Structure prediction request, 123 residues.
Amino acid sequence: VQLQASGGGLVQPGGSLRLSCTASGFTFEAYAMRWLRQVPGKEIEWVSGIDRDGHITYYANSVKDRFTISRDNTKNTLWLQMSSLKPEDTAVYYCDKPYDSRWVKTSARSDGRGQGTLVTVSS
Prediction:
């Protein structure tokens, strides 16, 4: 499993960013996927998940109505569109493959995780 996340950066509060994740080494279209994030020194946090077809999405309450997860199975790519960003969204964001779809709404049972991309929300 190889996952490469990108798109992080510095953004002002209220701004937007789009994270991307390219996948390889497994049959991307066969698996649910998720985004996690982690602030240094804190537990990793589940942010959002999506079923293998891209039809069903899940969001943590802290990001609901601000973030949108999506995927394109023809391109082996996962995205996270983030808007109305807040300073508390500052974290390293990880693209993650759960062991199976039962774990898509949690941060547990990872079967592969990218290197992460840093999002900093600050004025």
About this structure: The chain has a mean pLDDT of 96. The first strand starts at residue 2 and ends at 6. The radius of gyration is 13 Å. The chain has no helices and eleven strands.
